[in-house]
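Quick review question:
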């Protein structure tokens, strides 16, 4: 078992995915799920099974089946919405699964009953690189090794997730919520700006006519402001040339 950092994969995953998707409550629930499998010590202490039995240490609570069941159970508290429930279930299942994975990567201790309830037998991972042989269960040496072998990769995972999210935000095209009306003179999807038709209403009237969905979205708000500025500049230009007929719905003589 990892003594100190079993909770850490939940935090790293939450940071990598982002706070808009994984809130602090789900993060805390994930940290709890990531630590929970070692509660199987209690079953051994109570004499319900032997240490290496299917219900002993690293038994059914360190299995894929348990992780999936805990994820499904946790989704019941995720609130309404199928997408939200599926996301919570996947996150909690991954957090739970991180526990036997970390245990399995440590080069000491008995192996996990990965395939319970299909198979109660223990199976070791073929690769167990975390060197804990001869290291005490508690203490500074254990903590340092966990920081190096578990904390380091998790830090990299969290940073990679943040970087990918930032790249995605940078690369994706600006989206106007469905139903938002394109204002006169606004940029077309291809990036071109159409010149306005004579007599078109501009500025405040157009912005006020935008649906609430567009006004609530910060990106759409920025776009609306930019479009209003462009419209204002165009109106000024037209006014200078004596072609301005209408501003904000009020007829104006040149
Ligand atoms: Zn464990």
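Suggested answer, residue by residue:
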């Amino acid at each position: 078992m990892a003594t100190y950092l079993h909770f850490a994969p939940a935090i790293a995953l939450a940071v990598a995915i982002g706070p808009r998707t994984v809130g602090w409550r789900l993060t805390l629930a994930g940290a709890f799920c990531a630590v929970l499998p070692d509660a199987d010590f209690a079953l051994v202490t109570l004499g319900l099974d032997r240490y290496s039995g299917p219900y002993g240490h690293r038994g059914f609570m360190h299995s894929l089946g348990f992780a999936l069941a805990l994820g499904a159970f946790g989704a019941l508290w995720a609130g309404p919405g199928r997408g939200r429930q599926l996301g919570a279930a996947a996150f909690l299942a991954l957090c739970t699964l991180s526990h036997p994975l970390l245990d399995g990567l440590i080069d000491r201790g008995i192996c996990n009953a990965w395939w319970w309830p299909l198979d109660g037998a223990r199976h070791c991972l073929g690769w167990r690189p975390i060197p804990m042989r001869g290291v005490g269960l508690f203490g500074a040496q254990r903590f340092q090794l966990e920081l190096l072998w578990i904390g380091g990769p998790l830090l990299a995972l969290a940073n990679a997730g943040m970087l990918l999210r930032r790249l995605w935000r940078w690369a994706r095209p600006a989206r106007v919520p469905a139903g938002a009306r394109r204002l006169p003179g606004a940029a077309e999807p291809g990036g071109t700006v159409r010149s306005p038709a004579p007599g078109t209403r501009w500025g405040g009237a157009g912005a006020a006519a935008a649906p609430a969905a567009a006004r609530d979205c910060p990106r759409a708000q920025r776009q609306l402001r930019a479009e209003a500025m462009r419209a204002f500049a165009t109106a000024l230009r037209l006014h200078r040339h004596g072609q301005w007929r209408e501003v904000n719905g009020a007829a104006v003589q040149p």
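Why it works: Strands lie at 246-247, 250-251. Residues 1, 37-38, 58, 62, 99, 103 surround zinc ion (CB under 6 Å).
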